[in-house]
Amino acid sequence: MQDGGMSASTDTSFFGHPRGLQTLFFTEMWERFSYYGMRAILLLYMTAAVTAGGMGLSAAEGAAIYGAYTAGVYMAAIPGGFVADRLLGLRGAVMWGGILIAIGHFLLAFGVKPVFFLGLVFIVAGTGLLKPNISAIVGRLYSPEDKRRDAGFSIFYMGINTGAFISPLVCGWLAQSEKFKGVLAGLGISPEASWHWGFGAAGVGMTLGVIQYMIGSPRLGETPVERPSSNPALLWTQFGAAVLAVAALVWAFWDYRDWMILIVTCVFASWFVAQTEPGVERRRAWAVMLLFVFAALFWAGFEQAGSSLNLFGDRFTDNRIFGVSFPSSFHQSTNSIFLILLAPVFAALWMWMSRTGMEPSSPAKFALGLIFVGAGFAVVAIAARISAAGGDALVSPMWLTIVYLLHTIGELLLSPVGLSTMTKLAPARLAGSIMGVWFMATSVGNFIGGEVAGQFEKFPLPSLFGAVCLTSVAAGLVCLALTPTIKKLMGGVN
């Protein structure tokens, strides 16, 4: 073992990588199936008319809930990392997270409003346990010096996006397809209930993921559990009280949720830095914080996929190919198609560039990722202008296809690289917590993205998308300028 790793770096039984990567690949595939399948229809369901089986919310109302929910999903990585590091261990956290997620999706399928929101809470809690800790386990399969590490995370990312590709097609078809609604009507079931069949399918996917993980978990070895208290019951009580307190504050101060997100982020970031030892650890912690800012700005643009871009695809896009109509939620699979195709290319590219000494540093990859997401919004801003010029005319689906291609390239430059970089910068005792930091960046980005999407019906779309474009590109250029400083703080980690 090296640096707390759970398996020897000589294991090459899964396409040249450790066998444990196979278990994690399929676990994450089914978890992302459940998440992206539900996400593809969530905002569409909330903004659909009540007569069409939806909740009848405005775009602003739906986007606010969507943004808060998706922010909560990733914000929950903070207590999820804590629970893994001190109570359950990484493996236990992943298993219980999957169980909670499955329960949450089945609750969504009931079609009762209070139960629906309770289901969202279960998904938030479960994802907080699963997401940061499964990524930390991937990192522990490799030593910090293992040249396969970035390639391994890229393969892991293929699992994510295999699930994310399939799920909008399955869940979206069940929720939106007129053919399936006809099947329901023929069975004497209200066609408006189709939305809930889509949510239920997401639950089935996560159930399969839990079963697969339990079968394959022995391949992962042991993971340490650090308990600072000799009384685990007391620690659980303190943790539960903290969670309830935060939930109460969010409920009480919903109108000030932006300030609450900012405060929670600053407090946790300060706590994380304080946990590191002065010297190399502390400098690396500050590098993490700088990368955090740029990652949050990236996700604020990228995660418009499920909100403003989803609405644009539903309302202003001609969803037909060769005269055959398809549900607007199918657009949510486009990103995953490109990821599946391009992830092996990027994995091979990083391996080749590493051997030749030409590989860009992680901060430089972050900068390029931001620039590519900005380029995608430049394209959709043009499409929005064409639509507006034609009196809200429908535009070709190729516009969104190009947007998702550019965003996919940006994602491959930043997301798997970011996961890998966090695990390399993390002290072993903070493995779960540093992934909490990483996913908090996604949380903040999702929250900002939800606020931006809330302007969908208030601002001209060319201006809205153009503003996101300029912000993303500017952030990328700033990141590029700061790359030498960040590299120095990283203390030899590339």
In short:
This protein has helices spanning 20-47, 59-75, 77-108, 113-140, 149-176, 178-186, 194-216, 232-252, 257-275, 280-302, 308-315, 334-356, 362-389, 398-425, 431-453, 461-489; strands at 320-321, 324-325. It has 494 residues and is an all-alpha fold.
Characterise the protein shown here.
It contains 16 helices and two strands. By secondary structure, it is mainly α. The protein has one domain (20-489): Up-down Bundle (Growth Hormone, Chain: A). It has a two-stranded antiparallel ribbon. The two termini are 22 Å apart. The model is unreliable at 1-8 and 225-229 (pLDDT under 50).
Count of individual beta strands: 2
In the CATH scheme, the class would be Mainly Alpha
- Proportion in β-strands: under 5%
Helix-strand topology string: HHHHHHHHHHHEEHHHHH
- Work out the helix count: 16
Query: Strand order of the main beta sheet, please?
Result: 1-2
Topology record:
Blueprint: H1 20-47, H2 59-75, H3 77-108, H4 113-140, H5 149-176, H6 178-186, H7 194-216, H8 232-252, H9 257-275, H10 280-302, H11 308-315, E1 320-321, E2 324-325, H12 334-356, H13 362-389, H14 398-425, H15 431-453, H16 461-489
Antiparallel strand pairs: 1-2
Helix pairs in contact: 1-2, 1-4, 1-5, 1-7, 2-4, 2-15, 3-4, 3-7, 3-15, 4-14, 4-15, 5-7, 5-12, 5-14, 9-10, 9-15, 10-13, 10-14, 10-15, 10-16, 12-14, 13-14, 13-16, 14-15
